[in-house]
Every structure is written in structure tokens, then in C-alpha cells.
Design a protein that fits this description.
The protein contains 7 helices and 10 strands. The protein has 289 residues and is α+β, with helices and mostly antiparallel strands. The strands form 3 sheets. It has a 4-stranded antiparallel beta sheet. A 4-stranded antiparallel beta sheet has the order 2-3-4-8, sandwiched between helices. It has a two-stranded antiparallel ribbon with strand order 9-10. β9 and β10 form a beta hairpin. α1 packs across α7 and α6 packs across α7.
């Protein structure tokens, strides 16, 4: 499943290509799985709206939309926070396990399992492709409901004290806590493993027993790993590609994830794997304590 760096990379790429463009035609597939509200509602709601901005919230991509049949916004329009304030509606995309959101020319070959096509005034198309159909699409008219927000804190902006309070007194293993989207939004298996390695912490360590210094080390490691993964376009370990259909490169920098039996990049001892909180978990028994 795409995690924070992959979703952030896609959101930035889509924003660069479609910001200020207007939706002139909408097509949805006949499968019901991708839709959190009826495709007829989404199609009617999206038609004629201008895409003010596209951004990431947790593991979701949020398209901020202007009023229906409103004037197109300039491509170099207001900053994201202003766009969100003046947004009249949102189109919310969750990529699920294998989802892709692609922005390109209308004559690009149509991929199998394409579930949505938004034709834009510029001639581009925004397409949602999802072979396994675990992704979700939702339209929100903000005149009748609140805008989308993530349940947990954003690991790129969470403060030292906020981070400490998230885990204070909890008895669950720190790896399981990092995966809890109600605590931190956007962290998945890859970046939990990698961040714990860089922080030198064993995945089984109980949250409530970590010292303030260890938690701060983890917070900084998590942010550093996520920011570097974003710079490298994310990790392509399965189906993930960016808004242009290009694979990421951060998988080449993984220190523990899916490196079972391979030598640790620091101490050269074999990386181990265990199952924790139902997820395959990779760590170095020598470098992590």
C-alpha cells in the first residue's frame, strides 16, 4: 500500500499538472467498490469545477475544488491554505493497495482497471487506476459537510511534545503504535521499519517504556526517512508509480525492509524478520536495542 512519501509524491505531481484546470467531463466505471458515495453524485458534483489545489492528508489525496461552473483559477493561484479556505468541494482519493492517480494526455493508452477519467479543459485527463479495487473515491460538497481531515498527527509536522504524548503510557509495541493511523497518519510498514532502524530501537519495545530521548530520536528519524523518501520519489516495491507513471527510487536505500538475511548496512550482520501486529517486521538485532 502506498504510504506517506508515495502519496505525497503523487499529490505534488498531480498538483503541478492540473492546478487551475477545469473538469469538463467525468467518466466512472460500473464497479461499486471504488466509491464511498454514488458515482452519479460524484459525477454531478465534479462537473464544471476548477481544481484549486491537490494535496496529501494522511494517506489520502485531496483535490480542493471551486464552485460548480465557476471561473477557472490561474495555475499560479493562491497558496494551498487559501485554496482550502475558499474550496467549495473536495474530491478525495485513497489509493488502497494498488491504486494510481495519473495525469496525462487523453490519447495515452488506457490501462486495464481504470475506474475514473476526469477530462480537463486543458486537454489533460486525470485517471484513477486500481487493479485490486481496494482504493476509494469520495466527493464532498463542503456546504453541507466538513472538509476531510486525517485521524492522527502528521509525522512531518508533529512536535516533540505532541509526539511524546501520542505514546505516553501505552503498552503496545512501538512498531504497532507507528502503524496506528489514529496516532500518526501516513506511516506504514516500510517506513515504520526503516525509522526504527535509524533510531536504533527494537520494534517490540513497549511505547510507555521508551525514554523521552528515545522518542525524540524516533521522531527525528521518522521525519528524516520520510523526507528523504519524498525526495527520491517514494519506494516502488510493488505497483507504485508517481503521477507520470514513473517508479520511485527509495527502495534502493532501504536498510532493513525486505532485506531478511542480507547483511546490515552498518554492522554487516544478517537482518532478521518477525511478525508483529500481523505485519512482517524487519530489524537488525545488533544495531537496534
Amino acid at each position: 500500500m502506498p504510504e506517506l512519501p508515495e502519496v505525497e509524491t503523487i499529490a505534488r505531481g498531480v498538483n503541478e499538472r492540473v492546478r487551475g484546470d477545469r473538469i469538463v467531463e467525468v467518466w466512472f466505471c460500473g464497479h461499486r467498490q471504488p466509491f464511498k458515495n454514488l458515482p452519479e453524485i460524484q459525477s454531478k458534483g465534479l462537473q464544471g469545477r476548477t481544481i484549486l489545489a491537490v494535496h496529501r492528508t494522511g494517506k489520502h489525496i485531496v483535490c480542493e475544488l471551486g464552485p460548480a461552473n465557476g471561473k477557472p483559477a490561474p495555475a499560479s493561484g493562491s497558496p494551498l491554505d487559501e485554496c482550502a479556505i475558499h474550496s467549495s468541494a473536495q474530491w478525495i482519493v485513497h489509493l488502497g493497495m494498488t491504486g494510481r492517480l495519473l495525469a496525462g494526455p487523453p490519447d495515452a493508452p488506457l490501462a486495464a482497471h481504470t475506474h475514473a477519467r476526469l477530462s480537463l479543459a486543458s486537454g489533460r485527463e486525470l485517471r484513477f487506476v486500481d487493479p485490486r479495487r481496494f482504493g476509494r473515491l469520495e466527493f464532498r460538497d463542503l456546504s453541507g459537510c466538513p472538509g476531510f481531515s486525517a485521524a492522527g498527527a502528521d509525522p512531518l509536522t508533529v512536535t516533540e511534545e505532541e509526539f511524546r504524548q501520542l505514546f505516553h503510557g501505552r503498552r503496545l509495541p512501538i512498531k504497532a503504535a507507528l502503524l496506528n493511523q489514529k496516532l500518526l497518519s501516513g506511516v506504514g510498514n516500510i517506513y515504520a521499519d526503516e525509522s526504527l532502524f535509524h533510531a536504533g530501537l527494537r520494534p517490540r519495545r513497549q511505547c510507555g517504556r521508551l525514554t523521552r530521548a528515545e522518542l525524540e530520536r524516533l521522531r527525528l528519524a521518522l521525519r528524516e526517512v520520510l523526507e528523504e523518501a519524498i525526495r527520491m520519489g517514494g519506494s516502488s516495491v510493488s505497483d507504485y508509480v508517481d503521477a507520470n507513471g514513473v517508479r520511485g527510487l527509495f527502495q534502493l536505500e532501504h536498510c532493513v525492509y525486505q532485506r531478511t538475511g542480507l547483511p546490515c548496512r552498518r554492522c554487516q550482520r544478517p537482518i532478521r524478520r518477525m511478525v508483529l501486529a500481523g505485519r512482517g517486521t524487519h530489524y537488525c538485532p545488533h544495531c537496534q536495542h
